[in-house]
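Step 1: inspect the first sequence and its tokens.
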Amino acid sequence: MSLPISREVFIITSKKIRDIALKHFSEFGYESTSLNNIAEEVGIRKASIYAHYKGKDEIFKTVLHHALRTEKAEIANYFTSHQHESLENILRGYFDWLKEESKNNECLKFLMRVVYFPPPNLRKETSDLVNPFLTEMYRHLSRFLREKSRVENMVFSNHYSSIALTFITLSEGCFIELLFAEEKSYEARVNAAFPIFWQGVHCD
């Protein structure tokens, strides 16, 4: 007869399942991720996973919630920690930061995969979580641009919201290079596109 586990151990195990699943989903994708392999790495039997999650779909959605929440904090931290630099340096530096994050940040690696290749059976659930995240990032960036322009006495060629949307569009376009091409191709695209973006959005 097995002894009941404490609530603390239960929570720790749930988080461990989530964190290992995050790594597996980002590396192998949803379809190729095995609950057996996750359980083995956690150090439990596969059947024990069901005491924490209903199945792979629930694990995936939990991981997605966690990744979006974590990445939101990471992006906010980037802009906050660089707020005393010039706006041009902050926006240009974001691409360098993104490149490094794509190598070392498991949450971003996971999001890179699922945003473009969501599980077919969870496409709507994925979209329902990702789209509000992107909208919130857009609003935060709009506010950041407005505040920064006041500090630097900068005049923009368009409304803050339009510039924020343009920057996000540029970021997504360059970001695809990190998925499908080499780092050099990403850098070449950023180096070509950012100066044109910057020249077009602010007035001397």
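Step 2: inspect the second sequence and its tokens, then contrast the two.
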Amino acid sequence: MRVVLATVAALLAAAASQAQSAAPAPPLRQCGICHGRHEFKVVARDGTVRPLFVDETVLARSVHARWQCVDCHADVSAIPHPPNLGVVNCQRCHFPGNPVGAPEDVNYEGYVKSVHGRLRAAGNTKAPLCQDCHGGHDVHKRDDPHAATGKLRLAETCGRCHLEQYSQYRESVHGQSLLGKGNLQAPTCSDCHGEHSILPPAETASDVSATHIPETCAACHGSMAFNTAFDIPINPVKTFKHSFHGIANELGSARVANCASCHTAHQVLPPSDPRSSVNPANIPATCGKSGCHEGANANYARGRFHIDPSSRDSGVIYWVALFFKILTISTMVGLIGHIALDLAKKIRQRHGREARGE
């Protein structure tokens, strides 16, 4: 009898264990027992407050609405769960050929090599992960106006870490056009810096390195149609490339002035704005920066910038260029004519000698 009871007990224990291991993950309503309360939070030893409230209505509007909490928080197997959960790994779903239909065009390799990825690998917990930019529970498609990485919200997202740069950008012609007027042609952070493969400006491969900035700015300002739409009367890229600065830049000089050297990187303002680095009153300070034309005086502001010799607006330079163009063409025509006449004479002389039998 004891043997039978022991056997039954063992079978029941095994069944219970199997049932427990096969038990479904905690559904959202169970997580909401704690995370559904607005006041739910933890306070770190340094006094930092971390809110843990999850708004189910926000989650319901996100692209992850049909997934359970544990699909992302994979280390939760029972409630209550351990206090220190691991970081959510987005690669569990976002990989080429994934079976759940998640977007596959995620540049993880680029992120690992980026300035953000390197800092994270070095132990800097403030360096952003996927969810810091794309959102944790409010992830949306990029073209959704609620998306944290959408065109109209990206600068604000980056500004949570890069406060000074965001403040300058908001006041710039780019920020005012995009954020103030909703003009989607105006650039936001990723248009200049890239997305996942962001590198520091000191690295040559960076889109905003000293040697690459003109190329980056040319993506917009290389088009005269684009410039005309924004009341820019000249082609700044073409005129820069024809200047001493532009030629030196093309030859790989990282010391010579580039677009950002004069216009600044984030606080780009029109020359008419007194705060602008290219306002006539500020030109001496801009050109006289350390490593450039130190000691620059007010005469620098009297000169012309972004000169196009083919435009009459360039004044005397246009006429000088036109004179030399006419002189060069006339000289070449004269030389070619002289050679042609000389050649014709020699041909006639040769035919004459042949006719005389000489």
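Step 3: confirm your contrast with the notes below.
Confidence is low (pLDDT under 50) at residues 1-23. The first strand starts at residue 41 and ends at 43.
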